[in-house]
Design brief:
Elements: E1 6-7, E2 15-19, H1 20-37, E3 40-41, H2 51-59, E4 65-67, H3 72-78, E5 83-86, H4 93-103, E6 109-114, H5 117-130, E7 134-140, H6 153-164, E8 168-175, H7 184-207, E9 214-217, H8 223-231, E10 240-241, H9 251-255, E11 266-274, E12 280-283, H10 287-290, E13 313-314, E14 321-326, E15 331-335, E16 351-356, H11 359-364, E17 368-373, E18 376-382
Parallel strand pairs: 2-17, 3-10, 4-5, 5-6, 6-7, 7-8, 8-9, 9-10
Antiparallel strand pairs: 1-18, 2-11, 11-12, 11-16, 12-15, 13-16, 14-15, 17-18
């Protein structure tokens, strides 16, 4: 962590900022929901890639963290985080070499993920060579249709094979749900369906005398719905949840109606470089800063387009501004009211804070995040996972 007290006006733009009070509130709320549900919280760190924010989450009650790609675990381990789950299955000698580096770190608990026996065999050989059993989870596909073996009998078949391998210990199953209608009811249905399939698979394994000590589910959109289920003690087999985005939030999750814009902790700080055209201003941030996610999957929602264009973000407090034209290094923020009052017009040198559509993309292109409070920079976070 770097600490540097300076006014926000001194930050060179474009830059990613996080509102410290919102960030801390989001982290505390995630931990509170998990605690009330009686389940361990293991936040996915893909949205911020920052060890210091991960440590804030652990200090608030998380049992450890989760990363996607195995490479991302390195910076977290080097920062002293000692319980890391690698959520993506991996394959190949270069990936196993990274695993070896992680396993060589004293005091570090690493849990790996597989969805094919071919992935597990490489991990097994490494475990045998090191004389240890590597905790291994089976990823189960409950409808996200990315990684994962189907629940029920297909999962049982691979679990049996995993139990026969030396050098690993089969620890249980992992589900990451996605999809569902962007409504509270849709998220409740998605959470219920995913939890049901996960638990039915875990019970099937138990009946076959394959213990599944670890059963994890969860995603940011379903966080509240999943915790409500677990608080009701419907699924006592579930041991962990692993939401990620809701620590930060972005317009993706606002559009999905599971996050308010006021709860979005991150924004792009940018500067008006030109106000020559009365219809818009030009800012110094383009898709190399925001990313190129238009959230087109929500195109049927009212207000998604304005003058035929989707937006690339949202300007808090300025509903009359439409960030709707973006290029590589600049973008146009348009005035939606052609008769806008002179005092509401932006001038050259003015600064805007724009909540991005996809905060993961925006942060991944930065080397640091400025944590701000009351107009001052309170902390500077290194995006250590970026270079991995």
């Amino acid at each position: 962590m770097n600490e540097q007290r300076m006014p926000v006006s001194a930050i060179e733009t474009p830059a990613v900022i996080v509102y410290m009070d919102v960030l801390k509130s989001n982290i505390a709320r995630m931990s509170q929901l998990a605690r009330e549900a009686g389940v361990r919280l293991r936040p996915h760190t893909k949205i911020h890639e920052c060890p210091e924010i991960a440590k804030m989450q652990i200090a608030a009650g998380a049992c450890g963290i989760e990363v996607g790609a195995i490479e991302r675990a390195l910076c977290m381990a080097e920062a002293g985080i000692d319980d890391i789950l690698i959520a993506h299955p991996f394959y190949g000698d270069h990936k196993l070499a990274i695993l070896r580096r992680l396993l060589d770190k004293p005091g570090l608990k690493i849990t790996v993920m597989v969805d094919m026996i071919e992935q597990a065999k490489g991990i097994s050989r490494m475990g045998e060579a090191l004389g240890r059993a590597i905790p291994t989870l089976l990823k189960v596909n409950t409808g996200g249709d990315r990684f994962g073996v189907r629940p029920g009998e297909p999962a049982l078949l691979i679990a049996k094979q995993l139990c026969r391998l030396k050098g690993i210990v089969f620890d249980g199953i992992y589900v990451h749900e996605s999809g569902g209608k962007p409504t509270p009811e849709g998220m409740e249905r998605l959470a219920l369906d995913s939890a049901t399939m996960a638990v039915e698979t875990a019970r099937l394994l138990t009946r076959e005398e394959i213990p599944a000590a670890h059963v994890s589910v969860g995603a940011s959109p379903t966080l509240r719905a999943t915790c409500a289920l677990l608080k009701g003690r419907q699924f006592p087999e579930i041991t962990e949840i692993h939401p990620g985005h809701c620590a930060i939030g972005d317009m993706w999750h606002v559009r999905a109606r599971v996050h308010s814009r006021e709860a979005c902790a991150a924004a792009i700080l940018c500067t008006v470089m030109s106000a020559a055209d009365p219809r818009h201003v030009v800012i110094d941030a383009g898709y190399k800063t925001f990313g190129a996610d238009s959230l087109i999957q929500y195109r049927e929602m009212p207000g998604f387009f304005w003058q035929g264009k989707p937006s690339f973000g949202s300007v808090p407090g300025r509903e009359d501004l439409w960030p709707g034209r973006i290029s590589a290094e600049t973008a146009c923020v348009q005035y939606m009211d052609p008769d806008i009052a002179p005092e509401k017009r932006l001038g050259i040198g003015d600064r805007l804070e724009i909540v991005p559509n996809n905060a993961t993309l925006a942060i991944s292109m930065q080397q640091k995040i400025y944590g701000i409070r009351d107009g001052m920079v309170e902390r500077i976070f290194a995006v250590a996972g970026r270079s991995k």
